[in-house]
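Can anyone check this?
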Amino acid sequence: MDNVNELLMGLGMIVVTLGAIIGPVILLLRLMRHQTRQKEQRYRFLLDLADRQQPLPPELLKEPTPAEADRRRGLVLVSAAVGVWLSLQLLPLEYSEGRRLGELWGLACLPLMVGLGYLASWWLGQRGQRADG
């Protein structure tokens, strides 16, 4: 009976680990697909307007500014890092040696640092625009 519990615990750890790795990858792929579809629809609409010889709205011609994208990406990545850290801290799973899953909190450092980098880029861009204007 003890071997069955160890086997189930090992399988549970594998499932949780795969879910923690595959989940964000699937989410990222879906996000990228959604963004690609939005761009395709926008370009299709612009081509349709051009075929009808309609005036093209200037709002649709310009891409989102990098500063806005940096702020958004930074906030999303910092939030994701906090979510990963909290998940690892709050999950009650333990390894067979009594080590907790929360010891893997360092996994949250990568998205946190990248997110802080994007926020710094956005902030420095804002300072540069204020100094210029």
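Reply from J.R.: I decoded it. The mean pLDDT is 81.
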